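Hi R.,

Here's the input for the nicotinamide-adenine-dinucleotide complex you asked about:
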Amino acid sequence: MALFSGKIGLVMGVANDRSIAWAMSEALYAEGAELAFTHLPGDSSKRRVMQLVESRQPKIVQPCEVRNDEDLARVFDLVRETYGKLDFLIHSIAFAPPQELRNPYVQMSRAGWHLAMDISVYSLVAACRLAAPLMTDGGSIITISYYGGEKVIPNYNIMGVCKAALEHSVRYLAWDLGSQKIRVNCISAGPMRTLSSAGVSGFDVLREHAVKKSPLSRIVEPSDLGKNALYLLSDFSSGVTGETIHVDCGYSIIGL
Ligand code: NAD
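And here is the predicted structure with nicotinamide-adenine-dinucleotide in place:
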């Protein structure tokens, strides 16, 4: 029997075929999971996601602006009405105003700071709160971080501060939800070319540096992230919660 047969998951954050959430979805589909998806509101977002998923005939593909509490509540209500339960959740969402990312962090505006934190961090808290009552047999929740939340990576700026808050939110959420047998973990991914990473100046330099410095001498592949999602979302990681796992070809262990 496939690892995820009979398991139902909600995937938040597929924008296109390069999205980390899509790499994870492909791995989960290959293991028999039933998936529901949310995407940014708008026809073009919907079209791009539908092109990827329509052959799988998902029961739920819904717009969801994560700043909007009504949108979030509607999606989780629909999951409850459709399936009556949820086994896992992928939160793969981040945003910072591009012009603010180009400025030094010290220039960050109050409004831009709140917007980035709301979309990139608070959305995980809100999604966990709504997912928990549906995870009646326990569950597993993952989100995606980057090394720029631990160390200063030039140009990553507010997003690094968001990732630090995200990783620590994961620990507090793991504490809050542990008694309900819900695990919350984070994957700290190496740099990959996606829609979001295009907003980070000098991103190609980061990738080149990662190849030179990483013990595995390569860039992380979508399948590396897919396989780690299978681990964290399945019973193989039954004793792991509140953790950030680096899937970065070892980049983060090197001090040179
Ligand atoms: P992506 O652009 O494919 O995914 C980002 C997603 O966030 C998109 O689906 C977008 O629609 C969604 N989003 C943004 N604002 C939203 C809002 N207001 N409401 C709802 N959804 C919203 O890029 P990705 O690289 O796959 O990013 C996924 C996650 O991985 C992000 O948290 C990102 O920071 C993280 N990450 C990316 C890299 C990388 O190198 N690409 C490395 C480490 C971590």
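One thing worth noting: Residues 13-15, 19-21, 40, 64-67, 92-95, 119, 144-146, 189, 191-192, 194-197 surround nicotinamide-adenine-dinucleotide (CB under 6 Å).

Cheers,
M.
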